[in-house]
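Service request form, structural biology core

Requester: graduate student, group of Dr. S.
Request type: structure prediction, single chain
Budget code: on file
Notes: please return the result as C-alpha cells.

Sequence provided:
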Amino acid sequence: MKIILPKYSFFDEDYLVTISFENVSDKPIYNIEHKINGVVQSKQINKYKNGVLVKEGDNDEIFSEDFENTTISTGQLDPGEKIVATVAIKDIWKSIAEEKMDNSKIALDCVSLLTCIKTNPVLFGIGAVAKAANSILNCFVVTHALECVDVATLPGSTVAIPYEVEVVDISDAMKDKATPHNCKVVKNVV
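Core staff response, request fulfilled:
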C-alpha cells in the first residue's frame, strides 16, 4: 500500500490524499476495504523553553464528524492489478495567524472607508497608510505543514499490510492559487 500526502495544505481548500494498493503476489486478493471513520480536528498548545518541552497542553477537540458508509472496496484484485483512491479532505483549521490577519484587514478596510468621508490631508495620509498595510497583508499566505503521519491497522483485520508514505510538494495549480499575484516574490540566494 502506498499513501501519498501533500506537504502543505491551506485553509478552506481540499487536501488530497491518494491511497494505492497493488497486488504484488501471484494470487488474487479478495475483499480489500478502506474505511474512513470520521474527521477530527483538535488543538494542543505546548510550552517550550530553549527547545525543551516545559508544559504539554491538553488536546482539545474543536470539530469532529463521524461518517457512515464511507468505504472504498473492491471484490477481487488479481496479480499485477492496482486500485487507487483519492480522498479530498477540506482543510477546516483556521490558524490564529489567519484569524488575526483577517481581523486586521477588516479594521484597515474600515479605516480606509472612514477616511474617505471628509476631505482632510491628515485623514488622506491615514487612509493611504491603511491601504498600503492592507496590500502588504494580502501578500501573506498561511500554509499548514504536515509534520507526522500515523497509519493504523483496524481491529478485525486479518493481515498487516506493509505500507509506504510519500510526502510530496503541492501541485502547480495549488501553488498558483496560493501565490498572491500582485506581490513581489523575493528569493534569498546565499
